[in-house]
Amino acid sequence: MRHAERRMFGVGLAIVFVAACGGRSQPGGAASAPAAEAFVPGLGELMSLQQMRHVKLWFAGQASNWQLADYEVDELGEGFDDIVKFHPTHKDSPVAPRDAIPRMVTQPLADVRAAIARKDAQAFVSAYDALTASCNNCHQATNFAFNRVQRPESNPYPNQAFAVAR
Could you tell me the sign of the dihedral formed by the alpha carbons of 97, 102, 103, 106, in that order? Predict the structure, then answer.
């Protein structure tokens, strides 16, 4: 056989093989295999993202970049929603995240949003500190008191400009 004919024969054989394998049914008439489980991030991964947002929120507020601060506070809210959705309870925690977060974080988050909407730097600092305290109170209530958050002392994101672009 010439080279072109061998190539066509090989392609044809591959098509027949793929078609034969693709049409195979499950033994015993069983339905197709169950779909893979959807990925659910662990509570630690979600909280690490919350910590990142908390830091970025601080630097955005300090730079009076109210648009970025608004974005970060919105992301924090979505993150808390994800925690409640994916981890409504957690291990031996005496208070479930689904109960603690709405009760302890909702109002401080709203206060930060309000300060951002008013572009009020002084109110932002006060509301941010109250939000930080509520995070620590939530950690205390859920037996994670060893994990305390605070105002960031240095910027771990040197590749992000927090100042308003001009």
Answer: positive
